[in-house]
Amino acid sequence: MYKIKSWVIENHDLAFAILLAICVYGYFALTNEYFATHRTGFAIMERFAVLGLVGLALTLCIIAGEIDLSIGSNAALAAVIVVRFTDSLGAFPALFIAVSVSTLIGTIQGYFIAYLRVRAIVLTVGTLMLLRGVALFVAQEKTVMLTDFRVPDFISTKMMWYFSPASLLVIAMFVVVGLFMSYTRYGREIYAIGGARKEAVAAGIDLKRPMVIVFAISGLCAGLGGCIIGLRSGTAQALGLQYVLLAGTVAAFIGGVSILGGKGGVIGAAIGTLTVNFLNTGLVFNVTPAFMVQLYLGVLLMIVIMFQTGSRFFDDYQRRQQILFDVDARKAPLLARKAESLKRKNNIQFG
Amino acid sequence: MSAPITQPTPNWLDRMVRDYSAFVVALVAAFVVIFFIGMATAPNFLTLFNLKTIIRDAALVGIMAIGLTFVTLSGNFFLLSLKETAALSIVAFATSMSAGYGFEISFLFTMVIALISGVSQGVLIGLGGNPIVVTLGAAGLLFGLGSFWSDNLVISFRRPHGAEWLGTGSFLGLPNITVAFILIAIAAEMTLRYTTFGRQVYLIGANRAAGKATGHENFGMAIKTCAIASVCAAFVAIAFSAQFSSAHVNYFSSEFGSSGDMTIMVIATVMVGGNSIMGGYGSSLRSSFGAVFISTVDNMMVLHGFNSGPRVLAVGLMIVFSIMVFALVRRGSRSQE
Hints:
The complex is a heterodimer of chains A (about 350) and B (about 325). Chain A is mainly α and about 350 residues long. Chain A has one domain. Chain A contains 14 helices and two strands. Chain A has helices spanning about 1-10, 10-30, 40-65, 70-90, 90-115, 120-140, 150-155, 165-185, 185-195, 195-200, 210-235, 245-255, 265-285, 290-350; strands spanning about 145, 235. A two-stranded antiparallel ribbon of chain A has the order 1-2. In chain A, α5 packs antiparallel against α6. The relative contact order of chain A is 0.16. The model of chain A has no long low-confidence stretch (mean pLDDT about 90). In chain B, a hairpin with a 2-residue loop joins β2 and β3. In chain B, α3 (about 50-75) packs across α9, α3 (about 50-75) crosses α13 and α12 (about 260-270) crosses α13. Chain B is globular and about 80 Å long. With about 325 residues, chain B is mainly α. Chain B is about 70% helix and about 0% strand. Chain B is built from 14 helices and four strands.
């Protein structure tokens, strides 16, 4: 019991995320009799395959203290490429091309962010538009479609009640990235440049390496997510997938990242995405229109932001109080001595 | 005699060699050459009618961009919720018009709603929330509210209505929206240049620490600038609705128009105009010219017969180009980061 308590105190963000996930799941499980079945679980895992990747990518970017706004465009580009070339080249070469293009785009972005020393939002808002243009160009302004539906059938085959090849791949990706972030030097460098960039650079970390790695992983995740969504539905639009940025950001923030960077982790990203997926799927079950999901996500993000800003204020307040307390504690003996001497002086004068 | 202490003032060529690297000069020169070749070869480009078309196309994005310039200059990056603010405003305006309230009351009602949304975002940003994340959340919220209010339907109002003069009327041969764009551009430039508020915007954007030390907190500034940006977005929504006599939340999304997402177009305009996205450097006049410039390039590409793909690509290239040139020119100066 004591162990659990100390774990909760140590990882209060993660504990909060788990609690929120359980609450959301519990609410829908209690109000809807079909929600807690393995079929719904499979549907949730299928959503997790796409949103989980986006949530993971955004979590890494926010850990590094930046935000990748171009993630939706990158995913749309990958989806368009993979759907366009699957018929002529086969699924695996097309997948390979699409994912390499996305990863390459991410790498170039990371390099330029570090080289030009601009903030990521500045560059990625440009590439957001640029990649949409490229995607429109590749798709020739049409909705591209598959003609052979064996691939979509394969990637959503049900395995072990809950999983499909796509979601198993994503879970493997989560494990690999989680190990990379926790146990390698490059992963720790990403935390370092997010939490305290000046100090990290002063300690000898080359800004380029972690930045390139973060954006390469972000591009890889976006590309893979786009490919999965494109291959599963068999169609892709160059202007689609705009909603993933909001959903992914909400997932990352529920998972416990801080906008100041250096905080959060892969487990948090997984739990945050699952929470968003519970909400999404549950709202679909209750016949809510699609725009209401966006409304709820917006409200959720605003609440998390307010919570974070509030806790920052509280931390500042506590720190100020602590400083005042320390000063008082240091002053107290001096004041006492001064009072003593004053008293003695007075005694001599008037006593 | 010792050498003179003051050097002679270098002429423009010397200054260019001193300040800008060869790469930057080559980039800009290549762009200018492409621009002029395109202009000379496009059919019917240099006609008065086409010139008017360009400015009319620039007007809507331009007005929003002028509003956003205040936010950018004050160092709060940009708002990702402009399109959604406009979507909520257009629904509010059309609902009020179709209920028969007349232009003036509908206008005020829409402006109040836009002000509320702008001020609440500004409060969150001013308290220290990241502008991007706050407005990303606000975007989802406002769009959801707009869809919920209009039930995701097109709201239309009958043709002889009080807003017709704004949507389809013209003044001295110019459409009224263009006139409004020019007036707003002049007013914004005057405000930024000659009023205390305008100078405070620059101060806080250029050096937030100095601003704080001299008593100019970002809290009030974020609220004011976000309110200005939201009001400009609402004005665009009203003008748009007056032109079409209808409203739908998707009017500003990329699914509706071919020229891409409105929010990103506005941000592109601010960046291409040559404002520093870090704040403190630029002007609203630059944003207006940026709008005219993007609209010129778009017009040129339409006349050359390009589809929407290459046109979106061109705008994207212009943004990345402007970011790179800016970053390379201002490398090593204090205003970066």
